[in-house]
Amino acid sequence: MQKPDKLWQKKTGTAPEVEAFTVGNDRELDMLLAPFDVLGSIAHAKMLGKVGLLKENEAITLCQELKNIYKEIDSRSFSIEDGVEDVHSQVETILTARLGDIGKKIHTGRSRNDQVLLDLKLFTRSEIAGIVENTSTLFNQLIDLSEKHKEYLLPGYTHFQAAMPSSFGLWFGAYAESLVDDLTVLNAAYKVTNRNPLGSAAGYGSSFPLDREYVSELLGFDSTNYNSVYAQMTRGKTERLVSSAMASIAATLGRMSADICLYMSQNFGFVSFPDHLTTGSSIMPHKKNPDVFELIRAKCNKLQALPNELAMICANLPSGYHRDMQLIKQSFLPAFGELNSCLKMMYFMLQSIEVNKNILDDPKYRFIFSVEAVNALVNEDIPFRDAYKRVGEQIADGTFEKPESDLLKTHTHLGSIGNLGNEKISQLMKEVVEGFGFEKLEKSLSSLIKG
């Protein structure tokens, strides 16, 4: 196949140094976008045929060849060849080589600006679906662990000081509910993502009678980015909002990892893992290091920095397209794989977590029952402040005794040791996941490829 001109090529060439600097690693990253570029092109070709910018047979021929290319991508026989600038150029080059003048018509009514915008949104939608699936899997595991270990107590801390009794049921359940809120944030970002920018061209529309809402329907979008200028302004904004939602999930994973690193240490001894899931020391034979959780914590901290990085790239940019946006892809596209690996690894490790069932038998934790003693006095009609003072004096003079009470029976309000509320938390998660509406998306894309 002859080396193609750039899509924007005129008579003059470009210095090799400039080309290398401006293209960067776009060709490698664009392989992630390849199937979505083809999906968008199929919808675009159908629309061109619908409005009469392509003859019916031309639209059919283009769509069939694009489906062939899609199959080649799926079978990993597609590549972006040396000298080809990006995935958009590669697809158009293949179409032109195979279909001649018909292939050259695919770019009618669009720009690389709205084409890459569409690719990014289609890619992001697909990756969000994967994040939701893996987060839901971890959520279900945490709920199961919460129920399984709800009878086993551990100290709760404030200011790193042993404070009040908690339980493994509360601890696992807390991170499960945190994931509900994280997916709620991701759902909001998904709604921003799930709007079609194609047809905005370079950011100022087209003189062709494009049917943009038809394309939105074909691709399963909820709606269209109606204003052409704003459609271009979503580049960078969409990525920043999605990365912020991903950072929320990462914060939950990072915090739980920090807990586990503490709880595994000899000073705590709350949880443990089999030897084959920990690492050792080169000089200390006794060590069982929580390297997996330290790396999850570090990776998640890195993910939490991503929204700020993207915000700084976009800071002070006026409206319209700017090449600065190219740099966003380098950090944004790989972030989904990073977060998914952390979600999967957390799930893998928690399958083997072992909890200490007798933590509070240690005498050093006896004072965390002071609130139980205060509350027992209040139940005897002693004013709270007087009860608080009396128990405080007992602690000070060494006469305090741990009250004998079954916390699972005395802590009965919703969200407490004896009433975890896991059913309600699970219902919240079910509603959030259903709110994404992935079924509509899958149906639309399947129809586009098979129809």
What can you see in these coordinates?
The protein is mainly alpha-helical. The chain has 3 domains: 16-107, Orthogonal Bundle (Fumarase C, Chain B, domain 1), CATH 1.10.275.10; 112-205 and 228-360 and 421-444, Fumarase/aspartase (Central domain) (Fumarase C, Chain A, domain 2), CATH 1.20.200; 362-410, no CATH class. It contains 16 helices and 6 strands. The strands form 3 sheets. The protein has a two-stranded antiparallel sheet. Strands 3-4 form a two-stranded parallel sheet. The longest helix has 37 residues, at 112-148.
Itemize the secondary structure elements and their pairings.
Layout: H1 16-23, H2 26-50, H3 56-74, H4 87-99, H5 101-104, H6 112-148, E1 153-158, E2 161-167, H7 168-193, E3 195-196, H8 212-218, E4 223-224, H9 228-264, E5 271-272, H10 291-314, H11 326-350, E6 354-355, H12 370-378, H13 384-397, H14 407-410, H15 422-434, H16 438-450
Parallel strand pairs: 3-4
Antiparallel strand pairs: 1-2, 5-6
Helix pairs in contact: 2-3, 2-6, 2-8, 3-4, 6-7, 6-9, 6-11, 6-15, 7-9, 7-15, 9-10, 9-11, 10-11, 12-13
